[in-house]
């Protein structure tokens, strides 16, 4: 399983395993689709464990973020994952990392 | 419950039985490709007697072996009922097609592997390593052969080499 | 194309480039090459390997070849001389790169870091730290400036095993990435396929690289994606500064680094396609390859004189499996054709015969064409030997000159591959045991430099390869003594000179007094003989003491289909290779009267073989027999047969393992009638008959 989705309080957390590449994006996509179908308010994509990320994987993350429509929000949680930041830096991608306050 | 469903596929195997000098032999049908009439076998020069020659099997050239001579018996006499059993034998990780001359083909029988007796150490006048076992079918004994041993290309080629020298 | 396929394509390409590199280096070293072109080719080889390795993320290969490329670039621009030392170093680098590539295929073998680091150190000695402005044939930009790149990736990019990441990563080695913008073009949510690529990438690259260098990075995605590379302003200046040469506009732009070769080709073909008179410059501008300003500068530069370039050979890479399938099909077609031929002869309808003969003609052409596809020049194996001769003679301290003749002789590819090992063994043997040390040669009154000659030529439907040295020759007495010691022959056995030479092919035979690390392990020569025989070839040795040894290998042209001549003996159909058949004569009763096995053919003695006897075929000889006169090389013999049936095309089917000891028969074929015919291997047959006759004297 490329990722597991769990519901914690009012967050849905998508916890990615070590690999997100062309070899498993299809599976990852279907899991994410199923999770998104429940239209969560707040989605956290946890990529701290990712070791192997290619452009197909990065694209899937971008796509997932793009699917979450306001007022729902989604963020990336990367911790200090050097692999993840290397890829992000190369593409100069800015990820949303904090939920913007709406109700507090 | 229907008895058919109870059978363990491993415990029951199908064998093709055939006659060779009035003795009944069997060989696992998993290695039998087809059975054809004895016809159009081209002899190969300088070969020992057990090599009958080669055969054109739809574009493939297949060597034909006289099993009777291979078992140190007299040569098979070619008659109307003489057949060639085309066998596929595993040799050096490749499937090799080879033909075996037999007097006549009898039937396909199902044998419970538990009923197979070990090969007699003597009396069959066939090398024990050729024999998988002996089964008692109806009123007669069927000698079940190990195809890959009987038709071991390596061994036969070595025999031919000796003859050639 | 999946990743493994792309990867094996890369390995293939790299290997062939490395082989080129080696060949060119050796040719330059030998002094028989125009250096400028060769140096350019060597540079391009290193450059392309580096580029492709970068695309696959083989960073260690990129790192190593980058150093090689830098040194070569200096050679190319005339700042460094390619002397003996540097050639040596480059050959070592070539070896090391080859080992890196091999490691990709066989991941169990480790990467030799020690050698790599040592070589890089040596390379750095050649790299002058101070940057020098080079007057290279291709404009090298002296200023760092910004290229504008806009890459709209095709949907299949990921599926094809490409990753834009590795391209970005590689571009970082060319310069600095700036202003990277990733622009996804999302489809409707339902249409989103996670394995499709929806990315567009815009960025600037600060680099001194040429446009071609940058475009090379996108070589593998170019077919599926839209890649636009706009040169920076400064390229214009460099264009103006280019030495005035008479070149076409396109070439000029390419040389200035403003347009890639590919863009030029695409513009040229679009020009042709639309059949308009639109200027090339305009087409390039329309394609977005270059700005109109740039074209104007280039046009100013252009002179009226035409500059002709030799047409390049165009090659197409085809999977070997596809070719084999094609040849198998052609084989079946030929067999089917033979079947119809039998029917056509039976029906005996003139019109049918006529149209069938047209078909037969076409069939023959298709057959020859298909087989021709597999033909490659034998020189491919020779060039590898060059390297061995060079390295081994250095190691042994011998001075040996290698001459090659007939490297363009063509041979079936599978044969060339299988030939390479036996040739290597023979050559090593000649270097090791054949050619004497300098001192000994001088003592014998021979020139200090030893000669080794490799030659290939066509001879009567076969290919003959000769390896000749001017060394000590084979020592008959020593071989004999050794063979007796090793129990290969008995002490009292009488053998002809040629048969004694053949003893060196016996398993376990080795004459070398000292075992070196090159040859003399006692394995080898028997393998050589077996390999050659597997190719249906023969090997002969002739030797003169103190004058040298010649190994002669005779091989059939192809392994698949031959023109044959069908005969029969006692109902057995036999096929002779047509090119060896000289004539057919009737076998007179008077000649049968006595037991001698030779006859007078127009004043010459013709020995003959009674096939019925030799093959122990049933039945008494016929009243009327025929003799087929066959010739191969310098040998001539007659074969006594019952009936002559005429020419046919025989698709050769290899003998079953069962018949591996069979002598004189090379394979089978299926005749038009559906019967099996046996293809005679004439040289082997004659040898077999000779051996039998000699044995009968002994007994």
UniProtKB/TrEMBL annotation, chain A:
<dbReference type="InterPro" id="IPR002645">
    <property type="entry name" value="STAS_dom"/>
</dbReference>
<dbReference type="Pfam" id="PF01740">
    <property type="entry name" value="STAS"/>
</dbReference>
<dbReference type="InterPro" id="IPR036513">
    <property type="entry name" value="STAS_dom_sf"/>
</dbReference>
<feature type="domain" description="STAS">
    <location>
        <begin position="1"/>
        <end position="87"/>
    </location>
</feature>
<protein>
    <submittedName>
        <fullName>Anti-sigma factor antagonist</fullName>
    </submittedName>
</protein>
Automatic annotation (TrEMBL), chain C:
<dbReference type="GO" id="GO:0006935">
    <property type="term" value="P:chemotaxis"/>
</dbReference>
<keyword id="KW-0145">Chemotaxis</keyword>
<dbReference type="InterPro" id="IPR036097">
    <property type="entry name" value="HisK_dim/P_sf"/>
</dbReference>
<dbReference type="InterPro" id="IPR037006">
    <property type="entry name" value="CheA-like_homodim_sf"/>
</dbReference>
<dbReference type="Pfam" id="PF02518">
    <property type="entry name" value="HATPase_c"/>
</dbReference>
<dbReference type="InterPro" id="IPR004105">
    <property type="entry name" value="CheA-like_dim"/>
</dbReference>
<dbReference type="InterPro" id="IPR003594">
    <property type="entry name" value="HATPase_dom"/>
</dbReference>
<keyword id="KW-0547">Nucleotide-binding</keyword>
<dbReference type="InterPro" id="IPR036890">
    <property type="entry name" value="HATPase_C_sf"/>
</dbReference>
<dbReference type="InterPro" id="IPR008207">
    <property type="entry name" value="Sig_transdc_His_kin_Hpt_dom"/>
</dbReference>
<dbReference type="InterPro" id="IPR036061">
    <property type="entry name" value="CheW-like_dom_sf"/>
</dbReference>
<protein>
    <recommendedName>
        <fullName>Chemotaxis protein CheA</fullName>
        <ecNumber>2.7.13.3</ecNumber>
    </recommendedName>
</protein>
<feature type="modified residue" description="Phosphohistidine">
    <location>
        <position position="47"/>
    </location>
</feature>
<feature type="domain" description="Histidine kinase">
    <location>
        <begin position="359"/>
        <end position="559"/>
    </location>
</feature>
<keyword id="KW-0597">Phosphoprotein</keyword>
<keyword id="KW-0902">Two-component regulatory system</keyword>
<dbReference type="InterPro" id="IPR036641">
    <property type="entry name" value="HPT_dom_sf"/>
</dbReference>
<keyword id="KW-0067">ATP-binding</keyword>
<dbReference type="InterPro" id="IPR051315">
    <property type="entry name" value="Bact_Chemotaxis_CheA"/>
</dbReference>
<keyword id="KW-0808">Transferase</keyword>
<dbReference type="GO" id="GO:0000155">
    <property type="term" value="F:phosphorelay sensor kinase activity"/>
</dbReference>
<feature type="domain" description="HPt">
    <location>
        <begin position="1"/>
        <end position="104"/>
    </location>
</feature>
């Amino acid at each position: 399983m490329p990722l597991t989705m769990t519901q914690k309080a009012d967050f849905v957390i998508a916890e990615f395993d070590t690999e997100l590449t062309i070899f498993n994006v299809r599976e990852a996509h279907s899991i994410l689709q199923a999770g998104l179908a429940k239209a969560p308010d707040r989605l956290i994509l946890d990529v701290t464990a990712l070791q192997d990320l290619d452009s197909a994987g990065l694209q899937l993350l971008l796509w997932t973020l793009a699917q979450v429509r306001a007022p729902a929000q989604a963020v990336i949680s990367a911790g200090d994952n050097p692999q993840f930041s290397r890829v992000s830096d190369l593409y100069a991608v800015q990820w949303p990392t904090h939920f913007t306050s709406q109700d507090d | 419950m229907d008895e058919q469903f109870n059978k363990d596929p491993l415990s029951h195997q199908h064998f093709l039985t055939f006659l060779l000098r009035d003795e009944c032999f069997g060989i696992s049908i998993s290695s039998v490709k087809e059975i054809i009439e004895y016809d159009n076998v081209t002899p190969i020069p300088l070969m020992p007697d057990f090599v009958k020659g080669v055969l054109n099997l739809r574009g493939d050239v297949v060597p034909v072996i006289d099993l009777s001579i291979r078992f140190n018996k007299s040569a098979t006499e070619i008659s109307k009922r003489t057949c060639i059993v085309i066998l596929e034998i595993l040799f050096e990780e490749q499937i090799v097609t080879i033909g075996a001359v037999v007097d006549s083909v009898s039937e396909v029988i199902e044998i419970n592997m538990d009923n197979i007796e070990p090969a007699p150490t003597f009396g069959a006048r066939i090398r024990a390593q050729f024999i998988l076992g002996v089964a008692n079918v109806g009123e007669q004994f069927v000698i079940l052969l190990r195809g890959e041993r009987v038709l071991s290309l390596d061994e036969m080629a070595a025999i031919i080499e000796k003859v050639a020298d | 194309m999946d990743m493994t396929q792309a990867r094996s394509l890369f390995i293939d390409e790299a290997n062939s480039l490395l082989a080129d590199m080696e060949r060119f280096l050796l040719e330059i070293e030998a002094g028989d090459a125009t250096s400028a072109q060769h140096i350019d080719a060597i540079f391009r080889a290193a450059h392309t390997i580096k580029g492709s390795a970068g695309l696959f993320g083989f960073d260690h290969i990129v790192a190593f070849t980058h150093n090689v490329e830098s040194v070569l670039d200096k050679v190319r621009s005339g700042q460094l001389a390619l002397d003996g030392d540097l050639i040596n170093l480059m050959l070592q680098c070539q070896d090391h790169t080859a080992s890196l590539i091999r490691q990709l295929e066989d991941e169990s073998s480790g990467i030799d870091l020690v050698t790599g680091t040592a070589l890089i150190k040596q390379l750095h000695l050649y790299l002058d730290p101070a940057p020098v402005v080079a007057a290279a044939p291709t404009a090298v930009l002296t200023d760092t400036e910004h290229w504008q790149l806009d890459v709209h990736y095709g949907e299949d990019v990921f599926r094809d095993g490409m990753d834009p990441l590795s391209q970005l990563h590689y571009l970082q080695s060319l310069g600095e990435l700036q202003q990277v913008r990733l622009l996804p073009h999302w489809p409707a949510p339902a249409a989103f396929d996670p394995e499709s690529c929806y990315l567009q990438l815009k960025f600037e690259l600060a680099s001194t690289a040429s446009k071609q260098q940058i475009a090379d990075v996108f070589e593998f995605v170019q077919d599926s994606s839209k890649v636009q590379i706009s040169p920076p302003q400064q390229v214009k200046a460099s264009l103006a500064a280019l030495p005035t040469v008479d070149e076409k506009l396109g070439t000029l732009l390419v040389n200035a680094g403003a347009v890639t070769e590919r863009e030029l080709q695409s513009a040229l073909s679009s020009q042709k396609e639309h059949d308009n008179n639109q200027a090339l410059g305009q087409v390039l501008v329309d394609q977005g390859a270059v700005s109109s300003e740039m074209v104007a500068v280039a046009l100013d530069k252009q002179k009226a004189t035409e500059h002709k370039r030799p047409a390049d050979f165009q090659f197409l890479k085809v999977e070997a499996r596809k070719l084999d399938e094609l040849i198998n099909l052609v084989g079946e077609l030929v067999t089917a054709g033979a079947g119809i031929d039998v029917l056509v002869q039976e029906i005996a309808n003139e019109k049918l015969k006529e149209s069938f003969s047209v078909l037969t003609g076409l069939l023959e052409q298709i057959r020859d064409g298909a087989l021709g596809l597999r033909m490659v020049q034998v020189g491919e194996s020779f060039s590898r030997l060059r390297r061995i001769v060079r390295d081994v003679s250095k190691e042994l301290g011998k001075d040996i000159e290698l001459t090659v003749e007939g490297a363009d002789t063509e041979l079936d590819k599978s044969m060339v591959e299988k030939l390479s090992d036996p040739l290597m063994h023979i050559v090593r043997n000649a270097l090791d045991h054949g050619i004497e040390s300098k001192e000994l040669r001088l003592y014998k009154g021979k020139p200090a430099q030893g000669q080794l000659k490799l030659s290939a030529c066509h001879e009567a439907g076969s290919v003959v390869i000769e390896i000749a040295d001017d060394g000590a020759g084979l020592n008959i007495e020593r071989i004999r003594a050794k063979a007796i010691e090793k129990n290969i022959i008995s002490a009292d056995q009488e053998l002809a000179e040629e048969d004694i030479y053949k003893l060196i092919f016996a398993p376990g035979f080795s004459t070398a007094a000292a075992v070196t690390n090159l040859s003399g392990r006692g394995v080898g020569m028997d393998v050589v003989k077996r390999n050659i025989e597997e190719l249906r070839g023969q090997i002969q040795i002739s030797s003169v003491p103190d004058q040298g040894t010649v190994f002669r290998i005779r091989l059939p042209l192809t392994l698949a289909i031959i023109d044959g001549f069908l005969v029969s003996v006692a109902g057995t159909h036999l096929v002779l290779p047509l090119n060896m058949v000289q004539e057919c004569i009737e076998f007179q009763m008077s000649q049968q009267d006595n037991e001698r096995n030779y006859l007078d053919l127009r004043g010459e003695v013709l020995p003959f073989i009674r096939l019925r006897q030799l093959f122990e075929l049933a039945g008494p000889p016929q009243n009327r027999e025929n003799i087929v006169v066959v010739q191969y090389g310098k040998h001539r013999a007659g074969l006594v047969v019952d009936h002559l049936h005429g020419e046919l095309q025989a698709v050769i089917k290899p003998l079953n393992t069962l018949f591996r000891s069979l002598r004189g028969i090379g394979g089978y074929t299926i005749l038009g009638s559906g019967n099996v015919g046996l293809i005679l291997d004439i040289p082997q047959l004659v040898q077999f008959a000779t051996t039998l006759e000699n044995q009968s004297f002994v007994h």
